[in-house]
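Standup notes
- DV: blocked on the single-chain target, sequence here:
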Amino acid sequence: MMYDLCFCGDIYADDPSNLFIGEKLEKIFSSSKYVIANLEAPIVIDKDLKPMNKYSALKTKPEIVRFLKKMNVKVVSLANNHIMDYGIEAADYTKEILAKENIMNYGYGKTIEEAFSPCIVNVNGKKIGIIGLATTFVPEALSKRDKPGIAGIRVITKVIIDPREVLEEPAPPYIVKGEILNEDIEHLKSIIKDNKRKFDYIIVHPHWGVGLAPYNKVVVEYVKELAKNIIDFGGDIIVGGHPHAIQPIEAYNGKLIFYSLGNFIFYPLMNEMENLGLVLGIKLDNRSLDIYFVEQKYNCIEILDNIRERVEIKYFKYLISANKLELKESDSHFELTF
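- DV (later): unblocked, structure below
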């Protein structure tokens, strides 16, 4: 099956030389024009570089590029909460290595303008702009007019307490709300609207939500709000990530929102992290989209064949139906139109 665009989820490995993809998956990737992924960590070769003072700091090795090329990855997002874990030097080096290997990237830049600049791909006469952004980052990682960093959308965490409720049911997680900064929403609006007339399709690739289980199964309210804003501004498809788990699909004003593809491969898998993810194969001519399920087993990732037998996939299908999306189903994948 040949696809114009093929999206997969988050990629990380502390030892990339030990990663493998299965034959069925390799066949899909090799026949796709553009395979696109989120690179979840910077490439670090300087042993003296120290990580930022943050909750979790990741790094990978140059061998990750060999794995990306084996996957036929042509484009990666760097808009995530880890690309700046070892500072500007490591992020710049990662961007430089990717460029040398002819792997396009977006979501990180020397300035805020560069960080938000769309990656441009051309398929069958169609011009597609892909914009990366993240709501998950430490303040030091945010790009500014004169500072390198990621394409960030700031969200303020607020706690809304009803004393009667918290006394009866202590410490509920749902009392926490997110408020997106209006300044950042207006900036994103101008970026999407300015680029809308330049492209046949605008795809937005956000890194958002909550990554820790069990809350990573929930699409938090600010994510839903931001997704609707993106569509209202002119986005055509949203392909989300970060929660390390598959999340539901929704349609808003006729446009598809994939809240989270989950991991593609995260090696080694961290505690309570799921080994199931999504791969999207997009065909622009007939505006169809195939949804494959991939499973990581130790250091190998492969497409699942008989998806009808998996309880998690049955539940995923139920959520799609609950969101009033019609899909075609086979043993190996679902199909949607957009």
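- Follow-up: The first helix runs from residue 23 to 30.
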